[in-house]
């Protein structure tokens, strides 16, 4: 699949880039995408939720009232879950939410997500660019020139570019990642994917293994 390469003013440079059919042109596997997105979201959970059970409550162990003759239910401990300040029954406990997914399955999921974006004409390729200093306005101007000012976008760079990354941090609705940080969730979550020429090479190199 051939795609025209644009400059940061949104104009065609006269060059084209060939997107590999093995990465950007496969039949998407919705199930692979689902599994990878589910794993990504599960890994965002800390799993540190905790409430104290009856045995963990600090309190007196004496019997709080006599067994019979009170006209109310029997009660043996102030730490009972039926009293305010007592332990919680079947409360949340720390757990690990990590899920296992094979590398080949994750690779298929990313290829599927990229191929779906290709089918939807939601991939833009731009020449490699940088900024002299971090400036949100400069980054906003690039997105505006590409017609993405009001769309949720994901800009993928070929490598770490500190000035471009810092320029994007205050821009709502757009995120900058390198090709090695690209995940299925980030691809699916964006309306349009902006790839630099170096990023195309890096993605194809990573996913054609």
From TrEMBL:
<protein>
    <recommendedName>
        <fullName>Large ribosomal subunit protein uL4</fullName>
    </recommendedName>
</protein>
<keyword id="KW-0694">RNA-binding</keyword>
<dbReference type="GO" id="GO:0019843">
    <property type="term" value="F:rRNA binding"/>
</dbReference>
<comment type="subunit">
    <text>Part of the 50S ribosomal subunit.</text>
</comment>
<keyword id="KW-0687">Ribonucleoprotein</keyword>
<dbReference type="Pfam" id="PF00573">
    <property type="entry name" value="Ribosomal_L4"/>
</dbReference>
<comment type="similarity">
    <text>Belongs to the universal ribosomal protein uL4 family.</text>
</comment>
<dbReference type="InterPro" id="IPR023574">
    <property type="entry name" value="Ribosomal_uL4_dom_sf"/>
</dbReference>
<keyword id="KW-0699">rRNA-binding</keyword>
<dbReference type="GO" id="GO:0005840">
    <property type="term" value="C:ribosome"/>
</dbReference>
<dbReference type="InterPro" id="IPR013005">
    <property type="entry name" value="Ribosomal_uL4-like"/>
</dbReference>
<comment type="function">
    <text>Forms part of the polypeptide exit tunnel.</text>
</comment>
<dbReference type="GO" id="GO:1990904">
    <property type="term" value="C:ribonucleoprotein complex"/>
</dbReference>
<comment type="function">
    <text>One of the primary rRNA binding proteins, this protein initially binds near the 5'-end of the 23S rRNA. It is important during the early stages of 50S assembly. It makes multiple contacts with different domains of the 23S rRNA in the assembled 50S subunit and ribosome.</text>
</comment>
<dbReference type="GO" id="GO:0003735">
    <property type="term" value="F:structural constituent of ribosome"/>
</dbReference>
<dbReference type="GO" id="GO:0006412">
    <property type="term" value="P:translation"/>
</dbReference>
<feature type="region of interest" description="Disordered">
    <location>
        <begin position="45"/>
        <end position="77"/>
    </location>
</feature>
<keyword id="KW-0689">Ribosomal protein</keyword>
<dbReference type="InterPro" id="IPR002136">
    <property type="entry name" value="Ribosomal_uL4"/>
</dbReference>
